[in-house]
Design brief:
By secondary structure, the chain is of the alpha/beta class. It has a domain at 51-142 and 193-277. 39% of the residues lie in helices and 16% in strands. It has helices spanning 9-38, 61-74, 97-104, 135-160, 162-165, 168-189, 204-211, and strands at 51-54, 85-95, 109-114, 126-129, 195-202, 216-221, 231-234, 275-277. A six-stranded mixed beta sheet has the order 6-2-5-3-4-8.
C-alpha cells in the first residue's frame, strides 16, 4: 500500500492555528470584561424634571378655571394599559375628610391637599397620600398634627434662647410661629375642614361627571402626568376669586426686621405642598398610581 501523500507539517499548522484562535477569543473576552468594568453608570436623565398642575402664583383664577374646563371638554381616554387620567379637583370650600368622600362620590383618590384656614395667617400647605377616604385623610392629619406639635415646641425654644432675648422683632416672630403651629396641630388632630383639593385618576366621562357635582370648583385634567412623585399640584384657594396669591399675614409684617436666615417662616400658602404624609395602603387594594 502506498504511503500517505499528505505531508505531516499541515497538522502542526492546523494545531497552531487553533491555538491562536483560542488565544484571540480569550483576549477578546478579557477586553470586553475590562470595558464593562470601566463603563460609566447609567443615570436617570429625568431626575429634576417636574410637572406642575394647577394655577401659578400671580395668574388670574377665572382664566385658569376656563382653561381647565376647556381641557376637560376635549379630554379623551388614553389608549393602552393606563386606567384613566390624573386630574386635580379643586373644591369650593374647605372640607372635612368625611365631606371630601361625599363630594368625590367614590372617585379613586391618590392624595388630598390641605391647609388650616386661619384668618389673616399663612399656614403650611400639605399633601396627604390617601387611597381610602376618609380613613387615610384622618390618619394623615394626625401625623401632620404630631409634626406641628414639634414645630411649636421648636419655636418656643427659639423664642427663649439668648439670641432672641435682645431682639423684640425676632422674639415676636418666634412666638407667632409657635401659636400658628399649635393651632394647626389642634385643627388637624380634630380632622378639621382643611382639605381644598384632591388628586384623582378616572376616565374622561367620570371626570366630566365629577365636575358637575356640588362643591366641585374645577377639574383640571393632567394627561401628561405619569408619576405623582414628580408632579407639583397648586390648586386655587377656595377664598380667592381673582388672582392666585398667598394670603396676607399681618403678624409677619415685621419679619423683615429680623436678621436674614435667623428664623424659618411660617408655611407659605403660595408654595406647593412640601410635605407628603404617606399612609399604608389597604393590603387588598392596589394603589391607583
Amino acid at each position: 500500500m502506498p504511503a500517505d501523500p499528505s505531508p505531516r507539517p499541515r497538522r502542526g499548522i492546523a494545531r497552531s492555528g487553533l491555538t491562536w484562535v483560542a488565544l484571540l477569543c480569550a483576549l477578546a473576552v478579557l477586553l470586553v470584561a475590562a470595558r464593562v468594568g470601566q463603563r460609566e453608570p447609567v443615570t436617570d436623565r429625568t431626575v429634576g424634571e417636574v410637572t406642575r398642575v394647577g394655577v401659578a402664583a400671580g395668574d388670574p383664577i377665572p382664566g385658569y378655571l376656563r382653561t381647565a374646563a376647556d381641557e376637560l371638554a376635549r379630554l379623551t381616554d388614553p389608549t393602552g394599559p393606563a386606567a384613566g387620567t390624573y386630574a386635580l379637583v379643586s373644591f369650593s370650600a374647605y372640607l372635612t375628610p368625611q365631606r371630601v368622600a361625599a363630594t368625590l362620590g367614590g372617585a379613586p383618590v391618590s392624595a388630598v391637599v390641605a391647609r388650616v384656614p386661619l384668618a389673616g395667617r399663612q399656614t403650611e400647605i400639605v399633601r396627604i397620600a390617601a387611597l381610602r377616604v376618609p380613613q387615610d385623610v384622618v390618619g394623615g392629619m394626625a401625623e401632620v398634627a404630631a409634626r406641628k406639635d414639634g414645630e411649636a415646641a421648636d419655636y418656643r425654644a427659639r423664642a427663649a434662647a439668648p439670641a432672641a432675648s435682645d431682639d423684640a422683632d425676632l422674639r415676636r416672630l418666634y412666638d407667632s410661629g409657635a401659636r400658628v403651629a399649635a393651632q394647626e396641630a389642634a385643627a388637624y388632630r380634630s380632622a378639621c375642614a382643611c382639605v381644598y383639593a384632591a388628586v384623582i385618576r378616572a376616565t374622561s366621562d367620570a371626570l366630566r361627571g365629577l365636575a358637575a357635582r356640588p362643591g366641585v370648583r374645577a377639574v383640571d385634567p393632567a394627561p401628561e402626568v405619569s408619576r405623582l412623585d414628580r408632579t407639583v399640584f397648586t390648586p386655587p384657594l377656595p377664598e380667592q376669586r381673582d388672582v392666585a396669591r398667598p394670603p396676607a399675614d399681618a403678624a409677619l409684617a415685621g419679619a423683615s426686621a429680623a436678621p436674614a436666615g435667623s428664623a424659618p417662616t411660617v408655611g407659605d400658602s403660595s408654595e406647593a405642598a412640601p410635605t407628603v404624609s404617606a399612609r399604608s395602603p389597604d393590603p387588598g387594594r392596589s394603589a391607583p398610581g
